[in-house]
Amino acid sequence: MRRKIIDISVGISSDTCVYPGDPETLIESVYSIRGDGYAVSRVSFGTHTGTHVDAPSHIIDGGPNIDNIPIESFVDGALVLDLSFVSTDISLDDLVLAFAGFEGYDASDVRVLLIKTHEYAHEDPDETPFTAQRCLQSDAGSWIMEHGFRAVGVDTLSVDVSQSLNNHRLFLENGVIIVENLDLSGVEPGLYDFICLPLKLHGCEAAPARVVLVEKGFLNK
């Protein structure tokens, strides 16, 4: 029986919301089928556009770039937690409450934590959604580390409450990959197989990625 595959990537377009101050996305036609017999487009965007992966070099001088991270790091078991009940930034107590009922999972087989807040896929560039998004408090970030997760993904623009980048440092300095701006709107809490394929941009600190979840068991077939 074919297992369900869920695309949790945010598409990239000229309307894709980006972190305040990041480059805007530009997409333009270079050649057209009508005029040239074939179509080619030119795109310009920042490395943190849409659903993307942060590499250690994002905050560590001389740290590994996105093309240095082993591809095996992007394929693993994932646990999705629903934190949409939280109206402020996500605390340790919030994570523990959402985690209740999942304590018996096999930690050796599930090393990706995805946090669903319903703050995904902002499309209006005139809004300032980052100021209203629910991010991780420092004690929540420490809990994630203590539970042995090797990657953390969020449906917000950042894992941090502010530009202090405390969670970025905590995760990336300890080899935990960060995936931001996911679309978890169609995903129920639970266990999945996680496949994340960032663009292989040489020498870059991040890259947009296509990310999917598959019903648990796909990777063990």
From TrEMBL:
PANTHER family in the record: CYCLASE-LIKE PROTEIN 2
Pathway(s) the chain acts in: Amino-acid degradation
Quaternary structure note: Homodimer.
Necessary cofactors: Zn(2+)
NADP as UniProt keyword: no
One Gene Ontology biological process: L-tryptophan catabolic process to kynurenine
Protein name: Metal-dependent hydrolase
Keyword Metal-binding tagged: yes
InterPro entries for this protein: KFase/CYL, KFase_sf
Record key words, sorted: Hydrolase, Metal-binding, Tryptophan catabolism, Zinc
Superkingdom of source: Archaea
An example molecular function term from Gene Ontology annotations: metal ion binding
